Amino acid sequence: MLVLAALLLIIFPIFLDTFRLNLMGRYLSLAFVAIALVLCWGYGGILSLGQGVFWGLGGYCMAAFLKLEAARNIANEAGTDQINALTTVGLPDFMDWNQITELPWFWYPFKNFPLTLALMFLIPTVLAYIIGVAMFKRRVSGVYFAIITQALCWIMELLFVTRQGWTGGINGITDLRTLLGWDFMNGEHWTGQRLVYFITVIMIGVCIILGRLILTSKLGKLLVALRDTEDRVRFSGYDVASFKTFIFCIAAAMSALGGGLFVMNVGFMSPKLVTIEPSIYMVIFCAVGGRMSLIGAVYGTLVVSYGRTYFSEQFPELWLFALGGVFILVTVIFPKGLAGIVESATPWLGKVFSKTGEQQGSQPPAEAVGT
Amino acid sequence: MELLAFISMFEGYTGEEIRAIFIMQGFSGLSMFSVFLLMALGLAIIFGQMKVINMAHGEFLTIGAYTTVFISDWAVESAPGFLPYYFPFAMLAAFGVAFLMGYLVEIGFIRFLYKRPLDTLLATWGLSMILQQIFRLTFGAREDSAVMPDWLMGSWAASDMVDIPINGMFLLGTSIFMTVLVWLLMARSRWGLRVRATVQNREMAAATGINTKRTDRMTFALGCGIAGIAGAAFTTIGSVSPSAGSLYIVDTFIVVVFGGAGSLIGTILAAFSIAQAQSILEFFLDGVLAKVFILLTVVGILMLRPQGLVVSKIRKP
């Protein structure tokens, strides 16, 4: 934890230029999902292949607010000269292009910032709650749950791409620059991008601490127990479905926060980021870092994402081989990911790296993960 | 608004037209059904029996399709006289190549993952990336297609308004033939008995003298081989690109899960209902909306019946 904090808070900001730092911020906003997956997959045994849905919903909520602000800014700048404003006053430009003349009703809440923040967490969490109750009460789990979440991911992509007038279609929501008048896309020294980076890092810290609290509590022990032998927990009188739903909702909220911060880091949101493939990437981040280690998830995200950027620039043809190889290698030989490698290489360092719950469940037993 | 579109979608058509539309769309649905079924057959063996989630299944289909294209190119260039007859041989070759690949992949890493089903998903996703990149480097990113023999071309005019393409019928025939073959193999042969015994109780099966490792390997390879045949059959209706297989993989998994893993009847039912619903709704609504309706319906039904449409009554170990 200390090593990671030093790396993210001191070393990166000193040695990286704003562009690279912003790249790191981008990767880190994906790490939220990896941390969420450690909680619900590594410990809870719930593999969600559609975690990108929650991430994306959070992102779209944030983007909707910022887009309305951008539209207001354009209107203000145009002033009395409305003809040059290019778009209908106060309406996002893509709606204008799609012949929508009035703001759809569900865009209204995003005029208000506190409401937007609340919705950014609420919409994904409520969705996760509905899915969780519907699935876990019916005892849908393992592979079946994974496939169903994948289908949900697909539905969301199809809807967001085709309902162009409401969502910006395939291009998504672009040209986001200011938040409540603060120019966060500004690349100068300590303003804008750098500040967004630090906010992202601090939020990562909050999520890790929250995750630790959950895992060290009784709930965490129960999660491991129900992952390993769900029936035994059920027969002991626990309401397994509620616990699973709870952790799934927490994971969704965490992912949504990542999505919102992603928009702040890059200034756009697009449906390409909520397709099935990114969701699988997120699972890979978590697997590479170590599905049992909250901190490992952050490292996993940084390593794979950076590797992706670096390799696809340097050796575009080899990149997919390398990535595919990593998938196979990690799952077959290092199921505990980077955290597991560090732990076995230097036992004491491993303890420093990740103290949480490693003792109870070093490796998810076979049947538990599958059934 | 969408619901209104759904209700009013029949407006403006005469009864006879609607019948013709249903028959035509129904038949194009049958083609889709054949593709789903052919792909799902291999998965139903690999996933249904062995619980291995093979995300690279689509790439085994692509292997079969490229094998067919390769043989057809060879026939065009050096053996034009062979061209009318090459297709059955191409199908066999497609099976062989995909079978061999599956066999090697099982030895390579699948066999280490039998006790961790969800991990097979990650590993085979990696495999699918590697295979797609190999296709891209070997065959290029553009789309290839096989030269069809004359007897597969053209269509059969059933009535004035209804026109049924021959390649669609061929595809349907192939998938029915393969389904029967798989059923015979799994339910009526010594080998199928060994597979079922291994799946139900590995230790007991091993104790009775079944080589369970060999059975696993052959089962996986066979599933891949069937995907190869699906790929060969697929070339009769479409062209091949490096990512062709990945277009169908999610659909196929939904078909297998919806039907009830391990149940052949369930797989057929699921493939049929999804394909028909998609094809008929597509004509009246836009394709995407049809897809969303169907996916939501399937998810809804799966919530009510998590085991899928048809539950195979096999005792779990």
Automatic annotation (TrEMBL), chain B:
Coiled-coil ranges per UniProt: none
Subcellular location per the Swiss-Prot or TrEMBL entry: Cell membrane
> Major place of localization?
membrane
User: Is Transmembrane a UniProt keyword of this protein?
Assistant: yes
Any one GO molecular function term: transmembrane transporter activity
Question: How does the record say this protein sits in the membrane?
Answer: Multi-pass membrane protein
Q: Name one GO biological process term.
A: amino acid transport
Q: Where are the transmembrane segments?
A: 20-48, 60-76, 82-105, 117-135, 164-186, 220-241, 247-271, 283-304
Determine the domain of life of the protein's source.
Bacteria
Is Ligase given among the entry's keywords?
no
What does the entry list under GO cellular component?
Answer: plasma membrane
The record's CDD domains line, in alphabetical order, gives: TM_PBP1_LivH_like
Instruction: Cite the InterPro entries for this sequence.
Output: ABC_transp_permease, ABC_UrtB_bac, BCAA_transport_permease
Q: Which UniProt keywords apply?
A: Amino-acid transport, Cell membrane, Membrane, Transmembrane, Transmembrane helix, Transport
Q: Which family does it belong to?
A: Belongs to the binding-protein-dependent transport system permease family. LivHM subfamily.
Descriptive protein name: Urea transport system permease protein
